[in-house]
Design a protein that fits this description.
The structure holds 2 protein chains of 2 kinds. By secondary structure, chain A is α+β, with helices and mostly antiparallel strands. In chain A, 21% of the residues lie in helices and 30% in strands. Chain A folds into 2 domains: 112 residues, Rieske [2Fe-2S] iron-sulphur domain (Rieske Iron-sulfur Protein, 3-layer Sandwich); 220 residues, Naphthalene 1,2-dioxygenase Alpha Subunit, Chain A, domain 1. Chain B is α/β, with parallel strands linked by helices. Helices cover 19% and strands 34% of the residues of chain B. Classes of the chains: A alpha+beta, B alpha/beta. The structure holds flavin-adenine dinucleotide, FE2/S2 (inorganic) cluster (FES) (2 copies) and fe (ii) ion. Chain B: This is Oxidoreductase.
């Protein structure tokens, strides 16, 4: 008989994060060659900066000597950062290049340098085993830079474990309850959905709501494209999860009955909600999001309206996530139980658990 | 990944021991805890030395994916205070105290070109680097130097894995290493400023490479090395050390350091790394009869030539060629 995984295991409330993975550390514009900045990624404090020729660098944010934060230091030469305390200098590889008070440099002196790749308007860092850092593993977020799409986004400093955010995005029935005034509608929890594990290891959750009234957010969007729009729509939400923590959601509405479910979206509007969540600590996360659209590309007004609109919607999620994390911490003896709507989130948990196992950091397989 | 990890001691078990070259024993140790060994990392092992114990480091030549099985290779050292002798006495089933993999010699991925240089037992520190670079499809050459082939561990395995990328230089086969030519080959390459050299071997070899590297004005940070401790230019001999300021005079035995001898004699000295890196144990040389055998990496070549300071945790005094009198050195406290 096949041995089954103990069910208590993947419903861990404080989910550890894989280290052998690319995480978005910052928006491209946040990191400069003027001064280093501090950010903790996957539990590792990092000093982020750019070399004079613009190449991004991520060093451990603690000097080899007495652990002063390099992020408080200054950038010198072509690619170096100087410790703010006693002036040791490190190059972009983390090697100490100068010890001001002596003629030689101790060969052991170095700080870890993390692999960094700039892609899709983010800087991605790899906090784990550097020999495994393959840029091809960065999740596909091409809508962020594709000329066929326009939009913008922001960062939420979310006071919760990163997995709670993944749970939130993998099940959108919460929109009816959390986002009632903007995107929520009853048909969300009533409609059928399909959850599947794809051959490439991603997870898809697909939901169609046919012949429904568009909620306010979508009525505005479809009128941006078809100003005289009236009536009902076919609405879709197709969630794509890429390990460990990126979720791109294909969303939109089209005039009811014009063939959107069969693939003809010409009578509708299409957005992509781009989300990539970076664990900061066990109980805090950097949540990078953007809303991209493929119509009226040249309208900065629409870009700003959508960004501000989604910001308002996501503030409702943030409040719920903060309250949920607080309740989890206040009720240590209580466990999670699952519903059928959790299928997507449960696949995410299983995939993350497998990544942790591969790193020798399997979750404790406790029963409930 | 970081060099500053605290050692985490646990009881390991010897799984297998195999001789892999003259005086070199390959030892596979099973550890109860996982922890992947990155290229360049080593284990610390507790070894009996006299009636107490001390710590010795051994580079990890190979590890399984989960880091439960770690393989090291140990050279039997003639003047051993006990470490390598103990390691050679181990048989399968023996227990020993070991740490998790520790890292002081990390390999940076992503350089356009690498040169790895191993002298003798130093191959243990660079074998894993060569494997990782091969796995990553990097451009690398592994130069492996030894006195004679029967003393060189892993030659066949390395040849099989690295093919043309392995260059063997064997003294008694008439193909000794020409250090100047090796460094010239880096200097002449279009990627001269981006080539990283990682080396581990006897101090004479590494000193020679350092000198040529400096002379060629290649970037100092691209030269990375690990010293396996206190091998010097000369065989250790007994000598006398005195500190006139404290009216102290004592003999430094072959199995102890100046620092240890002076502390034994009651001089309160400052030190930290005890491997010639930090410079805290430096004392000024007042007078010397003999040759200063600088074994540290703290003093620059110019400072060593001028002979004003001595790194007491590693450096020694040797007898000049042909002399039979016992060397001595007089040191000054700061
Ligand atoms: C990071 C690192 C990795 C290492 N990896 C390996 C490895 O993979 N394989 C391996 O075989 N070894 C390795 N070593 C060396 C190893 O740790 C031991 O130093 C070696 O086994 C000798 O130990 P011992 O106790 O037998 O000899 P020791 O008694 O320590 O003698 C070692 C050498 O030091 C000289 N010496 C002895 N006493 C003194 C003194 N008082 N002052 C100065 N010099 C003295 C001796 O003549 C001899 O040449 C490594 C060392 C380091 C630091
Ligand atoms: S703490 Fe950085 S130089 Fe001292
Ligand atoms: S104690 Fe560090 S150089 Fe001697
Ligand atoms: Fe939401």
């Amino acid at each position: 008989m096949t041995e089954l995984m103990p069910s208590g295991k993947v419903t861990a409330k404080i989910f550890p994060h894989p280290l052998n993975a690319w995480y978005a550390a910052a928006w491209d514009h946040e990191v400069t060659s003027k001064a280093p900045m501090a950010r903790t990624i996957a539990g590792k404090p990092m000093a982020l900066y750019r070399t004079r020729d613009g190449r991004p660098v991520a060093l451990a944010d603690a000097c080899w000597h007495r652990l002063a934060p390099l992020s408080m230091g200054k950038l010198v030469g072509n690619d170096e950062v100087q410790c703010p305390y006693h002036g040791l200098r490190y190059n972009s590889a983390g090697r100490c290049t100068a010890m001001p008070a002596q003629e030689t440099v101790n060969p052991s002196a170095m700080v870890p340098s993390y692999p960094v790749v700039e892609r899709y308007r983010y800087l991605w860092v790899w906090p784990g085993d550097i020999t495994m850092a393959d840029p091809d593993l960065i999740p596909d977020m091409h809508q962020m830079v594709d000329p066929g799409w326009a939009g913008d986004g922001l960062t939420i400093e979310a006071p919760c474990n990163y997995q709670l955010i993944l749970d939130n995005l993998m099940d959108l029935t919460h929109e009816e309850f959390v986002h009632g005034s903007s995107i929520g509608q009853e048909e969300l929890s009533e409609s059928e959905f399909r959850t599947r594990l794809e051959d490439d290891g991603s997870v898809t959750v697909e939901r169609w709501m046919l012949d429904v009234e568009p909620p306010p957010f979508w009525r505005k969007n479809i009128r941006d494209r078809f100003p005289d729009f009236e009536g009902r729509v076919d609405r879709w939400q197709i969630i794509h999860y890429y390990a460990p923590s990126t979720i791109c959601i294909d969303v939109g509405v089209a005039r009811a009955g014009t063939g959107a479910p069969e693939g003809d979206r010409s009578q509708g509007v299409n957005g992509y909600v781009m989300n990539t969540i970076t664990p900061e600590t066990d109980r805090t996360s950097h949540y990078f999001w953007a809303f991209m659209r493929n119509y009226r590309l040249d309208s900065q007004l629409i870009t700003t309206q959508l960004r501000e609109g989604v910001k308002g919607v996501f503030a409702e999620d943030e409040a719920m996530l903060a309250a949920q994390q607080a309740a989890i911490d206040a009720n240590p003896g209580h466990e999670f139980y699952s519903l059928n709507i959790d299928a997507g989130g449960m696949w995410v948990r299983r995939i993350l658990d497998r990544m942790l196992q591969a790193e020798g950091r399997a979750l404790a397989g406790s029963a409930r | 990944m970081t060099s500053s990890a605290q050692p985490d001691w646990c009881t390991g078990r010897v799984l297998a021991t195999t001789p892999v070259a003259r005086d070199v024993q390959r030892i596979t140790i099973e550890r109860p805890a996982r922890g992947r060994a990155a290229p360049g990392s080593h284990l610390d092992v507790r070894v009996p030395v006299g009636d107490s114990t001390d710590v010795r480091s051994y580079s990890i030549v190979e590890s399984d994916d989960e880091g439960l099985l770690l393989t090291i290779s140990v050279l039997r050292v003639p003047q051993s205070r006990g470490g390598s002798t103990f390691m050679h006495s181990l048989v399968p089933g023996d227990a020993l105290q070991v740490t998790q993999p520790l890292q002081n010699f990390p390999l940076r991925m992503g350089a356009p070109r690498y040169l790895l240089l191993a002298g003798g037992i130093g191959i243990t520190a660079v074998a894993g680097m060569a494997r990782a670079l091969r796995g990553a499809g990097a451009d690398y050459t592994l130069v492996y130097v030894g006195r004679s082939r029967d003393r060189m561990a892993y030659v066949d395995e390395l040849a099989q894995l690295h093919g043309e990328r392995l260059v063997l230089r064997v003294d008694d086969e008439g193909t000794p290493l020409d250090v100047a030519q090796l460094v010239r080959s880096v200097d002449a390459h279009p990627l001269r400023g981006a080539t990283e050299l990682y080396m581990c071997g006897p101090i004479r070899l590494m000193d020679a490479v350092r000198r040529e590297w400096e002379a060629a004005a290649l970037p100092p940070v691209n030269l990375r090395y690990e010293t396996f401790g206190s091998s010097g230019w000369f065989q250790p001999v007994e000598f006398v050390v005195s500190v006139p300021q404290r009216q102290v005079q004592t003999t430094v035995r072959t199995d102890e350091t100046v620092l240890e001898a002076l502390i034994r004699a009651g001089v309160d000295l400052m030190y930290d790394c005890r491997k010639g890196e930090c410079g805290l144990c430096l004392l000024d040389v007042d007078a010397v009869d003999g040759v200063l055998d600088h074994r540290d990496v703290f003093l620059s070549a110019a400072q060593k030539n001028c002979g004003r300071s001595l790194s007491t945790c590693v450096s020694r005094v040797a007898a000049p060629e042909g002399s039979s009198t016992r060397p001595w050195v007089s040191l000054m406290l700061p």
